[in-house]
C-alpha cells in the first residue's frame, strides 16, 4: 500500500471589515464557511480541472474560533492549486477577511508543533513588559 | 524566508489618508522593510521651441515618510523594522531620463523606479545608471516587445523588474491581465532579478510574504525564485540603490599583499632586470603615456588599476615606497580624467 500524502496549510484569518461602534469584530467563522470560500477561489482560478483534481483530499481539518487559526488540507501533488488560491480569498461568509499563510506542513502533527511555538511567541511578545505573576499563563498555547 | 520586504506602498496625496493603516497592516503581516512609494506620472517636460525645461514640483523624501512619533510606536512593537523611500515615474521621452539626474529633490529618495512606454525607452532604462527598478503597468497590456538583449544588459547592471500583485487580488479581469504580463516578462528574463510587491491602494489588498510567494508561483516563477522575489531580491534592490549613490566618482584600489610582490621580483629573470634599469632611465613623459594606457585598459576590464600598479612596481627599484606609488597613481588617474573629459 502506498500512503496518500497530504500537505497542510496553516493560516490565520484576518478580518478586515469595518468595526461597529463599541463592539469588537464578530468572529463566527466555521470550517464550512472557510472551505466554501477557498473552494470558490479555486473554481475561479483553476476551473473544473482544479476542482476535480482536489476533490478527494481538499478539506478544512481544523479551526480555532478563539485564535482564528485554520488548517487546510490538500493532496500533495496538487497542493499548489490551493496555495495559489489562498491569497485571493477576500470574503469568508458575509464578512470581509483574508487568509495569511504562516506554515506549510506535511503532517497535522508538524503543524500542531509549529502552532504551539507560534502562539507561545505571540504570548511572549504581547506580555512583554507586563509582569505576569502566574507562570502558567506564559506557557499557554492553544495548540 | 528571511527578512521579507515590501517595496511598494503608494503614498501620493491622491491615494487617501490610509497610508498608516497600510503600513500597520504590512508590519503585522511580518514585513521588515517598508518602502514608501511616491508615484508621479509626469515630472519633467521639455518645451521644443524655447528649450526651456518645466518641472513638476516633487515633494521631499522626508515628507512622504511616516512621521517620527508614529514610527517610534511601531518600532516598540516590531523589532528590526526599517522604512525607505522610492520615486516612480512614467518615461515617455528620452529627455526624461536626463531629468532623473537633474532634479535635486530626487536625490533624497532611496530608490528610483521607472515605467517605460516604448521599446526604445525600455532599452534606455535597462542600460541606465540611474535606475534601480523597472516597473510595468500590470492593469493593461504591455505596449511593446521585451527583447532579450536589453534584459541581458539590465541583468548585468543589476536592475530589477517589478511585478505588482494587488491588481490580481482586486478584480478577475485585472488578474488575467497581470498573469499575462507576468508570463510575458518571465519568459524573457527566466525569473532572474524579479521582485514581487503590492502597489496596494487599500490595506485589504496586502498579503503576507508566503502568500505573495504563492502568487509568484501562479505568475510562473519556480518555488525558490518566488521566495527570493519577496526577500533576498528586494534586499539586492536596496543594496543596488545604495551603491549607485556612493560609487560615482570614486576609484577603487586593489592592493596585492607585499609577500607576492617580493616573490615576483625574485622570480624575475636577468633580462627583466636589465629592462628595469632601462625603464628607470626613461623620460618622465614616456612613462606617463604608458601609465595612461594601463589605466584605460583597466577601465574597460573593471580590474581597477591593479596591472598599472604592478607595472609601476617593476619600473621602480626594490626599495620602493608604497605610499608614494599610490599617490602618484591617483595623480595620474586624475590627469587621465581631465584628458578624457
From TrEMBL, chain A:
GO terms for biological process: rRNA processing; tRNA 5'-leader removal. Its main location: nucleus. It comes from the Eukaryota. Pfam families: RNase_P_Rpp14. One of its GO terms (cellular component) is ribonuclease P complex. Keywords: Nucleus, rRNA processing, tRNA processing. One of its GO terms (molecular function) is ribonuclease P RNA binding. It is found in: Nucleus, Nucleolus. Belongs to the eukaryotic/archaeal RNase P protein component 2 family. Component of ribonuclease P, a protein complex that generates mature tRNA molecules by cleaving their 5'-ends. This is Ribonuclease P/MRP protein subunit POP5. It comes from Lingula anatina. The gene is LOC106153751.
From TrEMBL, chain B:
It holds the Pfam family RNase_P_p30. One of its GO terms (molecular function) is RNA binding. Keywords: tRNA processing. One of its GO terms (cellular component) is nucleolar ribonuclease P complex. It comes from the Eukaryota. One of its GO terms (biological process) is tRNA processing. InterPro entries: Pol/histidinol_Pase-like (IPR016195), RNase_P_p30 (IPR002738). This is Ribonuclease P protein subunit p30.
Amino acid at each position: 500500500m502506498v500512503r496518500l500524502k497530504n500537505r497542510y496549510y496553516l493560516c490565520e484569518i484576518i478580518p478586515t471589515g469595518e468595526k461597529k461602534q463599541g463592539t469588537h469584530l464578530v468572529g463566527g467563522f466555521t470550517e464550512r464557511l472557510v472551505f466554501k470560500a477557498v473552494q470558490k477561489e479555486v473554481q475561479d482560478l483553476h476551473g473544473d480541472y482544479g476542482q476535480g483534481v482536489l476533490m478527494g483530499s481538499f478539506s478544512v481539518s481544523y479551526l480555532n474560533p478563539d485564535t482564528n487559526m485554520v488548517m487546510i488540507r490538500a493532496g500533495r501533488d496538487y497542493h499548489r492549486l490551493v496555495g495559489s488560491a489562498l491569497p485571493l480569498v477576500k470574503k469568508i461568509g458575509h464578512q470581509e477577511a483574508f487568509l495569511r499563510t504562516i506554515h506549510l506542513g506535511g503532517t497535522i502533527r508538524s503543524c500542531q508543533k509549529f502552532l504551539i511555538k507560534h502562539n507561545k511567541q505571540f504570548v511572549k511578545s504581547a506580555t512583554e513588559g507586563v509582569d505576569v505573576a502566574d507562570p502558567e499563563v506564559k506557557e499557554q498555547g492553544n495548540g | 524566508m528571511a527578512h521579507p520586504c515590501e517595496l511598494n506602498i503608494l503614498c501620493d496625496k491622491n491615494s487617501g489618508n490610509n497610508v498608516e493603516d497600510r503600513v500597520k497592516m504590512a508590519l503585522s503581516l511580518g514585513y521588515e522593510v517598508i518602502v514608501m512609494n511616491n508615484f508621479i506620472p509626469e515630472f519633467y517636460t521639455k518645451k521644443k521651441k524655447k528649450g526651456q525645461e518645466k518641472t513638476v514640483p516633487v515633494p521631499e523624501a522626508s515628507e512622504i515618510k511616516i512621521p517620527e512619533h508614529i514610527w517610534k510606536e511601531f518600532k516598540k512593537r516590531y523589532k528590526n523594522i526599517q522604512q525607505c523611500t522610492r520615486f516612480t515615474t512614467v518615461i515617455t521621452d528620452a529627455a526624461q531620463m536626463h531629468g532623473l539626474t537633474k532634479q535635486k529633490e530626487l536625490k533624497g529618495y532611496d530608490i528610483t523606479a521607472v515605467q517605460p512606454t516604448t521599446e526604445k525607452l525600455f532599452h534606455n532604462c535597462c542600460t541606465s545608471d540611474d535606475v534601480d527598478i523597472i516597473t510595468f503597468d500590470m492593469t493593461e497590456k504591455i505596449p511593446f516587445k521585451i527583447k532579450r538583449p536589453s534584459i541581458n544588459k539590465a541583468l548585468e547592471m543589476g536592475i530589477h523588474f517589478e511585478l505588482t500583485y494587488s491588481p490580481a487580488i482586486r478584480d478577475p479581469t485585472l488578474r488575467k491581465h497581470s498573469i499575462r504580463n507576468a508570463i510575458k516578462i518571465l519568459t524573457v528574463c527566466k525569473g532572474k532579478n524579479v521582485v514581487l510587491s503590492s502597489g496596494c491602494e487599500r490595506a485589504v489588498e496586502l498579503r503576507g510574504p508566503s502568500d505573495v510567494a504563492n502568487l509568484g508561483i501562479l505568475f510562473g516563477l519556480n518555488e525558490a525564485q518566488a521566495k527570493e522575489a519577496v526577500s533576498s531580491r528586494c534586499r539586492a534592490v536596496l543594496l543596488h540603490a545604495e551603491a549607485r549613490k556612493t560609487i560615482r566618482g570614486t576609484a577603487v584600489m586593489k592592493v596585492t599583499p607585499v609577500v607576492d610582490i617580493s616573490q615576483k621580483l625574485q622570480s624575475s629573470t636577468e633580462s627583466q632586470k636589465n629592462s628595469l634599469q632601462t625603464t628607470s632611465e626613461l623620460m618622465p613623459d614616456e612613462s606617463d603615456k604608458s601609465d595612461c594606457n594601463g589605466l584605460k585598459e583597466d577601465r574597460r576590464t573593471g580590474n581597477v588599476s591593479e596591472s598599472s600598479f604592478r607595472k609601476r612596481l617593476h619600473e621602480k627599484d626594490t626599495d620602493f615606497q608604497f605610499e608614494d606609488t599610490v599617490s602618484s597613481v591617483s595623480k595620474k588617474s586624475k590627469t587621465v580624467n581631465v584628458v578624457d573629459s
